Amino acid sequence: MQNPPPPITSARQLDLDLDPLLSVEPAKPWAADLLRDCARAFADKDSANLHRLLWMLNELASPYGDCEQRLAYAFLQALFCRATASGDHCYSTSLAVAERAVSFASARRLALKFQEAAPWSTFGHVAANGALLQALDGEPALHIVDVSDTFCTQWPTLLEALASRADADAPRVRLTVVSSTAAGVVAEIGARIEKFARLMGVPLEFRAIAAPALPRLADALRPEKLELREGEAVAVNCVGALRRAGCGDSRDSFLRAAAALRPRVLTVVEDEADFGAAGEFMESFEECLRFYGSYFEMLEESFPATCNERLALERECFRSLVGLLACEGGADAVVDGERRERGRQWCRRLERCGFETFGISDDVIDDLKALLKRYRPGWSLLPAEGETSGMYLTWKENPVVWACAWKPK
Amino acid sequence: MQFQNLFNFKNAKEDPQMSATEAISKTFSHSCNPPPPPKKKRNLPGTPDPEAEVIALSPRTLLASNRFVCEICGKGFQRDQNLQLHRRGHNLPWKLRQRGSKESRKRVYVCPEPACVHHNPSRALGDLTGIKKHFCRKHGEKRWKCDKCAKKYAVLSDWKAHVKTCGSREYRCDCGTLFSRRDSFITHRAFCDALAEETARVSAAVFNNITSNMDLKPTSFINVNNGDQVIVEQQQVKQRESRGVNTNSAFNNGDLYGSCSNLQQPEGQLSWAGNSTNNHGDIFSLSTTRTVKGENVFAHGSFPSLFSSLEHNPTLGSDTSATALLQKAAQVGASTIPFLGSLFKEELGGETRDFLGVGMHPSFSGWL
Questions:
Q1: According to the model, what pLDDT value does residue B359 have?
Q2: How does pLDDT run across A26-40, given as a tens digit for each residue?
Q3: Which of residues 263-292 of A touch B (CB under 8 A)?
């Protein structure tokens, strides 16, 4: 866009009829169509139209309204950054602010509240823990390498399950967490997990490794860095982690590094979305619309009306969308951590990097079904088919989270 | 001690079937047939009746449910009387089986599974129904599954009992929050502030308790190590490792209080000195775990100054049962250990505690 057009001050100027959209009754979903129009204006480089549409969006969107309005608001941020070419700056600032603001208490509240409201994260935890228990059954010494973004909320239930095994003593467990969360928060998490493990009677050693910068995530998996010991059974747990291992080839190197550890099992949980490379704007846009539309709707239906945790989760989406729609990325920038891939794409990668599927037992499937029963309706389990292995969590028939277990060939 | 004859005449009817298939090892007795006791008395675990007859039934016998079979149509029944009623439908006469003319002898049953703790005649179970349920529960296939929580059971009655209460149970954290879901409760508890405070509270209470009970017997002593690990005399540390883990590494850092926190129970706790009235209630309650594996006891290594007699006792291997160890301790100084009596009561109560502190459960591992 060259010279910015003169500011718009009224709807009449735009020759728009906003009445149907501004009426009070619950309208039919309007955000997706409006957003698509915006995207097309970008693609066509139609600055006048774009300007007009962004103004409209600004009028209708709100971070405190219904999910249509919130979705519109989230995309507005991203599209505005794109229009003003301020995406990279906006993303890194937002990330820095978030990292500074996080505290143990806030992280805990957010993670636990979300787990209460929806199975989005607990689905992956139950699936991964099931696979871990299956693969590590009978081993007296375990070393779990956790590369995840859920603040260790996966581990209490695993520790309890290890402690409750009726036919064996609890094994000795080493938990090495590779995390980019602030060191203070991770230390507090570690202290509490250790205390809890003592309560369970499970000998636990907790250790945190600061995650290296994005494309070098594979460095964290070097044996000397992890201080592997003789006789311990290694497992690698990646929840929302693979997409943070850079892009393209960096993801492969991460997986190859994981395979080199000869783990008994590699558990993978990822959001089911294909955000591709930065280049194809329209395709990415459409996919963002689908995924985040689903996510925002899910948040609205899972949380109570006014909820700070829901706002916090939506704010994280603002940043993700800025990263996906307004940033150049590439060269393994941090923003590439937003570039999710679908399960079938991950499957191809994993097979390429020396892994084969680790079949999980029917008991784990039953556990997952029982888990979903504990939440509001709308969620279900869908086993993957064909060339794709693993399982999906679906929200209103749409697959949203993919979980799968692997072992080295 | 005089063990009374606990033989249950109802079981006697099933003898003829058994004798065809079992391998019997007998320890003969010459009991004198006392009159049937008014109430069944349980032996102390680990101290079976030396005069009892040890019966080893085969897995097939133990799992068989319909053992009384109609010869006409092959229909199976659990009880002889039901079979007889059925036989009347075929116009056959009653034919009650004979009980056998030998005198009543106490019978105890061992589990056929060699790795099982009840395979050893000294840990035999006194009841036929008991051994059948034990075998099915522990070594049988779990064919019944709870719909809500996916927990599996081998014994149908266990499953039924569970399904009645599943989902209705509530879990309360020390911080006061109530949960209907077990997984949420566990995750919450792990990170709850109440957990962090608990250990601090316990350590303070322990110290108060000890210093205020200085009138112990002369044989007792108090040894304060490193300021943070207070080791008191033998009666105190009869804590059982929850989960039976030798947590040497976890405990060597003087984390006595870590273990205490796991034993702290909201109800029915045992008083440390028998009559302490300190405001934190009772600290060293024992939590027998639902696994009741019994083999592993406590981390010897962490309490160097205690139980000098027990620690260096060569007969105590790692697979000595907990109950045997406790009995030894009882021999050593039962008079000075007031709570050991209640400890045994605990054992015999047949109940196990959930170490999470949510309450009592029946002794089988099926609860939620």
A1: 40
A2: 567 899 999 999 999
A3: none
Average of per-residue pLDDT across A283-304 = 93
Burial of A22 (0-12, 13-18, 19+ CB in 10 A): exposed
Amino acid identity for residue B195 in this structure: L
Contact in structure between A251 and A245 (CB atoms under 8 Å): yes
State yes or no: pLDDT of A24 exceeds 70.
Answer: no
**Are the beta carbons of A341 and A104 closer than 8 angstroms?**
no
Whether the pLDDT of residue A59 is over 90: the answer is yes
Using DSSP, state whether A40 is helix, strand or coil: helix
Choose, out of A195, A232, A360, A364, the residue to mutate when testing the contact with B (most B CBs < 10 Å): A195
Tokens of B55: 């019966």
A200 Cβ under 8 Å from any chain B Cβ = yes
Residue B39: alpha-carbon gap to chain centroid: 21
Tell me how far apart the terminal alpha carbons of chain B are, to the nearest angstrom. 39
Residue A359 touches partner B, C-beta closer than 8 Å: no
Instruction: Report whether pLDDT(A14) > 70.
Output: no
Q: What is the distance between the terminal CA atoms of chain A, rounded to a whole angstrom?
A: 52
DSSP category for residue A213: P
**Buried-state track A305-329, b at ≥16 Cβ within 10 A, e below 16:** eeeebbebbbeebbbbbbbbbbbeb
pLDDT surpasses 60 at B240: no
User: How many Å apart are CA A90 and CA A315, to the nearest integer?
Assistant: 13
Number of residues assigned to chain A: 409
| Per-residue b or e along A35-67, where b marks 16 or more CB atoms closer than 10 Å to that residue's CB | bebbbebbeeeebeebbbbbbbbeebbeeeebb
Q: Which class for B305: exposed (0-12), middle (13-18), buried (19 or more C-beta within 10 A)?
A: middle
With CA atoms as reference, the chain B residue closest to A126 would be: B183
In chain B, which residues have their Cβ closer than 8 Å to the Cβ of A157? 183, 186-187
Name the nearest CA neighbour of B234 among B217, B214, B246, B252: B217
Q: Which of B113, B187, B248, B293 to mutate to test the interface with A (most CBs of A within 10 A)?
A: B187
Q: Bigger pLDDT: A67 or B313?
A: A67
Residue A280: predicted pLDDT: 79
pLDDT tens by residue, B63-80: 887 778 888 888 888 888
Residues 6 or more apart whose Cβ sits within 8 Å of residue A249 = none
Distance CA A236, CA A145 (A): 5
pLDDT value at residue B271: 37
Kindly tell me if the per-residue pLDDT of B228 is higher than 70: no
Q: What does the DSSP 8-state code read for residue A110? A: H
Residue A110 has pLDDT above 90, yes or no: yes
Q: Which amino acid is at A172?
A: R
CB B249 within 8 A of CB A203: yes
**Mean pLDDT of all residues in A162-188:** 89
pLDDT at site B199? 61
Name all domains of chain A by residue range, CATH numbers in brackets: 11-102+279-335 (no CATH), 118-272+340-408 (3.40.50.150)
Please write the tens of the pLDDT for every residue from B42-61. 666 666 677 788 888 888 88
Q: Please list the residues that pair with A204 across neighbouring strands.
A: A173
In Å, what is the CA distance from B360 to each residue of A4, B288, B297?
72, 10, 21
Residue with tokens 């329209």: A282
Euclidean distance between CA atoms A202 and A170, whole angstroms: 6
Nearest Cα to A254, choosing from A244, A239, A240, A269? Answer: A244
Residue A204 touches chain B, beta carbons under 8 Å: yes
- Measuring CA to CA, how many Å separate B36 from each of A36, B177, B220? 87, 51, 45
